[in-house]
């Protein structure tokens, strides 16, 4: 452990154990040390667990995100509006990869998308897992990802590939086996610098903290969402709350199934046991199969289209998303992404 880290980590651990939040700069320096491999596994684990027990603060999220952004491999592009549908995960809902399907349908509807994601951690299937199952080459290097984004208007930013410095903490995270500060950071560190984010969160507490962090980190416009049934997606079972974050401030939106003109459905109807089943569900939706899984993708895409200003309300968004699927444009976009 470096000399600076030798003193900084024990002090931060004591502070967190005492229930005191770390500052933005303090957290940023600590995460920097972790990502440079300058801190031992034991103190990294101790700090992450102390922050978890205290409850990670907005200042800690912002500081950690700024450090991670400094270390990530950036994806240059030509788009003024760029959407990401990456969420925090951790809801335990067991659904198929709705946000990944939403990303593809949104791209098919004319929105540039840089989908950030990783392999499964707390879920049965991660975005990287299902895209790999669908035939997408997820291990592309940064130049190939950038080229694809500019050429076809969608790319997949594989976190494991584009955040190489995370190799210094992956062992600790795996050994701990619990959610830590890093679980909230993925959506805050899109390598292509997404201007618009449809960002699902697993709890009202995480929703409020992530929204406050995004307000400091800056996007053009984001919807940070959580549903009353516990889903980290736009849900058709009860009410979905979205905290809209723009430079001029935050406000709260709510949607019910009636707003989308879609039938209510529970998360049970959206379940997938593994990436293969999730991929099969997405393929059938894109082939025109009706039902709750299609409706879930229509609702999520409608929110994404409203977010980027493509439609005036979510009802219009459902119509445009359905048209993109039924005209074969979602299937065609997936085929381009495979190429």
UniProtKB/TrEMBL annotation:
Organism, by scientific name, is Rubripirellula tenax
- Please list the residues that bind Mg(2+) 1: 99, 233
Binding-site residues, anthranilate 2:
173
Pathway-wise, it operates in:
Amino-acid biosynthesis; L-tryptophan biosynthesis; L-tryptophan from chorismate: step 2/5
Its family remark reads: Belongs to the anthranilate phosphoribosyltransferase family. In the C-terminal section; belongs to the anthranilate phosphoribosyltransferase family.
Q: Its function?
A: Catalyzes the transfer of the phosphoribosyl group of 5-phosphorylribose-1-pyrophosphate (PRPP) to anthranilate to yield N-(5'-phosphoribosyl)-anthranilate (PRA).
What keyword terms does UniProt attach to this protein? Amino-acid biosynthesis, Aromatic amino acid biosynthesis, Glycosyltransferase, Magnesium, Metal-binding, Transferase, Tryptophan biosynthesis
Where in the numbering of this chain does the Glycosyl transferase family 3 N-terminal domain appear? 12-72
Could you tell me what this protein is called? Anthranilate phosphoribosyltransferase
